[in-house]
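User: For my dataset I need records formatted as: sequence, then structure tokens, nothing else. Please produce one.
Assistant:
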Amino acid sequence: MRRQIKEFSDVLQGRAKPVHVPRAIAQEYSEAYRRKGTRVVVPTEPGEAVFYDKKSKRVVATRKGYEPGQRLRREFVKTGEIEQPLPPGYAYVIPLGNGEQRFDTWADAVVFMTPYETGPHRYYGALGDWKKYLIVEHIDNYDDE
């Protein structure tokens, strides 16, 4: 019991949420995120609703945007499923320290993350492990006008 509390302490603190996904999809997400049975634990921000989208077959988080009527939609990328190039309005996001870094293109992400791969501290572990933490973010405008 103590091990589970220690392992999933971020869920208890509200920094992550478990999402129920199909068994085959859970195995694909287990390379990048923690998994317990058919539930995948993904990092979230306060106010986000997390769910599994059957249409896109991805874990998705939505929350209010920065302007009235705006919605932020974040899709959690499975390992090895990085789209190049992204459709317009989408961006790559990777958590860094206290904040997040956004990239419009894959090349920008690779250039920015190179020091994290080769530096002495290797914040993300072995070479290329930072790709596991990528999130695809999309901002939708729901304007009725």
